[in-house]
Structures are given as structure tokens and as C-alpha cells.
């Protein structure tokens, strides 16, 4: 192996800066809140689309058929 190959095999260096657990928690909560807002926005958009499609279609008539006859055991 050459020197270049040995460098490629080594694991990446650890980050020099350690984060405070509170900073990590705040970053995670920020990501979660952003995902929540995006999900609520998507839900509202889809709900509005569904409601507009339901209003555009005429109401479906209910079927008033009789009961099906079951096959009796002999």
C-alpha cells in the first residue's frame, strides 16, 4: 500500500468543537417544529383541495336495494 492508500482508509477526524447538550436539544426542537409546521401546511392544503373537489361533485345517491338472500344450509 502506498501512503495515499493509507490516508484513504483512515477514519475521518473527530470534530474539534463539542456542542453543548442544550444547543443540540434546541437544534433538534427547531427541526421538529419546522417539520410540524410543514406537515400542518400540507394537511391544510390537501384538506382544502379535498373539500373543493367534494363541492364540485354532485352528492352520490344512496342505494336502497333489498337484502341479499343467503344460501341456506341443507
Quick structural gist:
Helices cover 58% and strands 0% of the residues.
Secondary-structure blueprint of this entry?
Layout (H helix, E strand, L loop, with lengths): L2 H7 L11 H36 L18
Please characterize this protein's 3D structure.
- By secondary structure, the chain is mostly helical.
- The protein has helices spanning 3-9, 21-56.
**Biggest β-sheet, characterized?**
none
How many H/I helical runs?
A: 2
Distance between the termini: 84 Å
Mean pLDDT: 81
Secondary-structure element series: HH
Low-confidence stretches: none
Number of strands: 0
Silhouette? elongated
Structural class: mainly alpha
Beta-strand percentage range: under 5%
**Which range best describes the helical content: under 10%, 10-25%, 25-40%, 40-55%, 55-70% or over 70%?**
55-70%
How large is the radius of gyration? 31 Å
Question: What structural keywords apply?
Answer:
74 residues
Amino acid at each position: 500500500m502506498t501512503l495515499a492508500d493509507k490516508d484513504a482508509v483512515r477514519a475521518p477526524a473527530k470534530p474539534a468543537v463539542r456542542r453543548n447538550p442544550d444547543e443540540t436539544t434546541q437544534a433538534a426542537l427547531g427541526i421538529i417544529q419546522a417539520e410540524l409546521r410543514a406537515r400542518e401546511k400540507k394537511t391544510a392544503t390537501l384538506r382544502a383541495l379535498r373539500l373543493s373537489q367534494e363541492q364540485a361533485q354532485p352528492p352520490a345517491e344512496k342505494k336502497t336495494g333489498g337484502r341479499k338472500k343467503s344460501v341456506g344450509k341443507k
